[in-house]
Amino acid sequence: MASEKKQTVRARIFESEERFLSPYAKKSKDTLGRERAETPCEFRTDFQRDRDRIVYSNSFKRLKNKTQVFFAPMGDHYITRLTHTFDVSQIARSIARSLGLNEDLTEAIALGHDLGHTPFGHVGEKVLSQLSSTGFKHNEQSLRVVDVIEKEGKGLNLTQEVRDGILQHTSTGKPMTLEGAAVSLADRIAYINHDIEDAIRAKVIKAEDLPKGPVETLGNRTSERIRTTLADIYENSYGKNQVRMSEEIEKASWELRSFMFARVYKLTNVSMQERAERMLTQMFEYFSKYPEKMPSPYLRLMEKYGKERAVCDYLSGMTDRYAISVFEDIFIPPTFSLGGVTV
User: 2-274: which CATH topology?
Assistant: First the structure.
């Protein structure tokens, strides 16, 4: 009897999805599955299991100490890579719920989409892309994290739909599911609007500096802009095999994005950006010359994937503070005592 009750939990979820989700949603029972077959969980769908695996992964925990825009900010309310991930998850789930899509799949993709991000935000990604002979993209690294790096090289063995959504979440990506498309839009909505809050908080810009056209179209406050965009996505996507904004809202959003790149992303704390570039460059060269100095999991990765790839894996997995600490250990001599005098 107990076994029958356990089985009905999973079956009940499948039945509920058939009754209430959009015909364009990805049903849990229709997953393409995992690379390595596993015994199904008695209480959770495969997408729910993926979400839990991501949340309990080491890479997810490290997101709390990775930069979004402002390096190692002292204030308590600045956006980190972790809080950005939660923002994306919340917005993406709101889109999925309004359109009758699979929230579990949406949430799993959203929570995993930035696992491969480097320390020091996009500066770190740019540096590793320049140093690596094969380039470096955070979405590709996020997929590598869940496929290869987590669980000491075994990976998380996620479903094909979640893996695809993680890889294809960038603005140029083409996700195989509408849930993946929802996360891609949510990512852009989140980072534009919450980065504006941080830039104003840091006194890099003022609210009145924002371009008037997009503000008039989307709203004066973050909550207004997000609500306007979500309503627009609903109006243009409900009952259709698509998740998209109208041309007007998309144009206003891209204008805000362009403003942020010109006034914030490229100009914020230039000296810190230069320091981050120097630190990562010197550490890349050091570990390329002395790979045996990396932790043992990365030595095992090096045996299979090569030295350069393993060095990128190690550096990209660092938090901002850990990267600074490793750099100091390597390149800044410790104080020592000479005749009772500290040198």
Answer: Hypothetical protein af1432 (1.10.3210)
**CA proximity to 63, closest of 116, 1, 128:** 116
pLDDT tens across 144-203, in order? 999 999 999 999 999 999 999 999 999 999 999 999 999 999 999 998 898 898 888 878
- Give the contacts of 315 (CB within 8 A, at least 6 positions apart): 118, 119, 124, 128, 280, 283, 284, 287, 323
Token pair in block for residue 135: 């380039």
79 alpha carbon, distance to own chain's centre? 13
Write down the domain spans for the chain.
2-274
The predicted-structure confidence for 56-80, as pLDDT tens digits, reads as follows: 999 999 999 887 665 554 555 567 8
How many CB atoms are closer than 10 A to CB 128? 22
Phi, psi of 337 (to 5 degrees): -100, 135
How far is residue 28's CA from residue 79's CA, in Å, rounded to a whole number? 32
Give me the pLDDT at residue 2, please: 47
77: tokens are: 């309310």
The answer to whether 125 touches 117, Cβ cutoff 8 Å, is: yes
- Report the candidate in 192, 194, 187 with the shortest Cα–Cα distance to residue 139: 187
